[in-house]
TrEMBL record:
<feature type="transmembrane region" description="Helical">
    <location>
        <begin position="67"/>
        <end position="85"/>
    </location>
</feature>
<feature type="transmembrane region" description="Helical">
    <location>
        <begin position="20"/>
        <end position="37"/>
    </location>
</feature>
<feature type="transmembrane region" description="Helical">
    <location>
        <begin position="178"/>
        <end position="194"/>
    </location>
</feature>
<feature type="transmembrane region" description="Helical">
    <location>
        <begin position="147"/>
        <end position="166"/>
    </location>
</feature>
<feature type="transmembrane region" description="Helical">
    <location>
        <begin position="288"/>
        <end position="310"/>
    </location>
</feature>
<feature type="transmembrane region" description="Helical">
    <location>
        <begin position="224"/>
        <end position="240"/>
    </location>
</feature>
<keyword id="KW-0812">Transmembrane</keyword>
<keyword id="KW-0472">Membrane</keyword>
<keyword id="KW-1133">Transmembrane helix</keyword>
<feature type="transmembrane region" description="Helical">
    <location>
        <begin position="91"/>
        <end position="110"/>
    </location>
</feature>
<protein>
    <submittedName>
        <fullName>Uncharacterized protein</fullName>
    </submittedName>
</protein>
<feature type="transmembrane region" description="Helical">
    <location>
        <begin position="252"/>
        <end position="276"/>
    </location>
</feature>
<feature type="transmembrane region" description="Helical">
    <location>
        <begin position="122"/>
        <end position="141"/>
    </location>
</feature>
Amino acid sequence: MIVPSLLTAIATWYLPRRKLASELSLIAICLLQALTIHFPETQLLGLVFGTVLMIINTQYLRHLYSVIITLGLGITSIFFYLSVLNLSPSLWVLSGVIITLLLWFIRHVLSDNISDLASTYAQTFDVYAYIVSLVTLTRLIDVSLVYTSATNTLISSIVLMGTVTYRSWQPHISNNRIPLLYSILILAIVPIPALSLPLWGWIELAIATILMVVQTQIFKQVDVAFISIGFFLEFLVVVLEDNGLKYVEHFWIYWLLLATIITILVWIIYHALNYFQIHSIDYYKKALNLRGLTLSTLTVTTISICRLATDYLLNNDFFY
């Protein structure tokens, strides 16, 4: 640890060789991690020590790679410390969600800073947050399928959905829809494992629907409104299924009837919005129109297929 410390000190106080000393310090810090990786008792100390030195070095090495190494060491330090605590799988997921939230919060704070270094840090925090959130999502699905009744799993799911939604609201480059699309993807995936438990599945799906409605109010886009309506319809379908609709005899007839009723209601709401000329939610009006067309097309197609299949079976005496 002495060598990287001395090199960092030289970079701090000896201006003529600042850049060279910082680069050599970076190499020494990487070698330090390689030397301590097989010694758990010193690995955490090496990671924390390297993170602190890299924070200093990035003041002089204003490059993306130095920031990536700095944050990589810092995040690795956190996860290594958590591994020492022997957390349960659900607590690991909750920790990952909280770390993701913190990364995006710091990114949000740094995005208001106009300096180049702060901008580089903000971009790197953003990338690491996406990586951690994806890993956490994968682990959350795995844990949810095994520990569906764990309270920590429900909390993790809700916080993760809120976190990705919070990221989509943050300032970003114009026409960059990745945060919005990513949040929609997470909102669609996270509630799925909990659907095996009626109450918990309803809670997660209801929260996802509410967040999508809020997204629609913020972005005021037709495609987002279209998806929000889809989330609400999915919530309605899940509630009806859990209340026994899928177990009744000839359940597909009831589903077709329900789809027809929903289509009629969608058209009625669309007509009401169009009649009262509520321009502030025109995006919902257009989305309702598209959703009505989609539902009616699917319903008619399904009825036609069922009718053709029934006629075919009757004509070929399959029921005798």
